[in-house]
Amino acid sequence: MKELNGKILAPASTVIRKLPCNLRAEEEFYFRHEYTKNLPSCEVQILENAYFTEDGVIYTKGLQLVEKSVVDAEWIGRFGLRYVLATYLKKKQINLNDSNYYLSVVDLWSSGYAHWILDALPRLYASRELHSQCYLLLPASHDKKYIHETLKFFDFKGIYFLPADHYAKVKNLVLITHAAPQGQLNESISRGLRQHVWDWCDAKQLNTPNLGEKIYISRQKAPKRHILNEAEVQHVVRQHGFTVIHFEDYTMYEQIAIMRHANYVVTLHGAGVSNMLFMPSDTHYLEIRRKDDTNNNHFFSLASAMQINYWYQIVNYKPSPKADGKNFDLSIGNYYDVEVDIPLLQQNIEAMLRHI
Questions:
Q1: Per-residue pLDDT tens over the stretch 243-296
Q2: Residue 150: which region, alpha, beta or left (left: phi > 0; alpha: psi -120 to 50)?
Q3: Which domains, ranges and CATH numbers included, belong to the chain?
Q4: Is the Cα torsion angle 101, 107, 110, 114 positive or negative in sign?
Q5: Helix (H) or strand (E) holding 62
Q6: Radius of gyration for the alpha carbons in the chain, expressed in angstroms and rounded
Q7: Which strand ranges, in their side-by-side order, compose the sheet holding 284-290?
Q8: Whole-prediction pTM value?
Q9: Is there a cis peptide before residue 209, judged by omega within 30 degrees of 0?
Q10: Dihedrals φ, ψ of 128, to 5°?
Q11: What pLDDT score was predicted for residue 240?
């Protein structure tokens, strides 16, 4: 294994994104800064006598921070001496088996649905040839049903969940660096992952349900971020032949099947849109997104990476009652509700449906 240290799983690349299909000149500022991006290489780093924390942050001998284990360069300052002392003094150490290699593809955010699908899974796919020699190392925060379901796509020597309030000392730790920065995607890895998942589902005969080519994903059952005039929105989409669904009603494999059969998808910005990863190329996705938000372009990037036609509608919003700026932040946690302009939605849907 040690001879693989430094191996490049995917080379650095420059992506040039396809513009939104219904881009308005006065709204170009939402996307302009995402048109071209330079992405780093995805690499194997084999670390000896490393320390692995609940946040997926890694330290080596002398408690030297492994910066590529941090979710984003802007967060590196949060994992200095104070964080190390808090970990050492308040949490218990576990010594993992010295004869095993442990694989890490996680970070501070990767237990969240969108970050798991778009950040962690691509790293797992890129490193799939190493899995038979490694135990996958995951924090307790990743012990979730959808994560267990997606881990079946790969064959590991084993999977180890680090108990809560612990950190691990690992003699042989294999870090797979990020395939792309937050909000970006390595196009070749992402498309390869899509085909890998399709092939796995085919082998397991997990290709149902097929709910048709037109899907509207409602967030009515989601804990936050709702459409205030949801009934009007559903009326419009149903008029155009869309099936209204809630992802909460389906297993992970059923969600994949639904998206694989879809040709047109409409929904409000949310983690479930990450399932666009499983849509075929040359299909269409319309994102309802809040006014003034130029930061959350994850799904614009995803659509381009997967060769999907991206449509959008900017909507007015108001902060959720929970958006107190402390525990529930409007900009970071997306705690807001929106009002959709119905005539404009009808116009956008009709344009998308007649697009050639």
A1: 999 999 999 999 999 999 999 999 999 888 999 999 999 999 999 999 999 998
A2: alpha
A3: 42-179 (no CATH), 214-353 (3.40.50)
A4: negative
A5: none
A6: 21
A7: 243-245, 214-217, 264-268, 284-290, 309-319, 336-339
A8: 0.94
A9: yes
A10: -60, -30
A11: 98
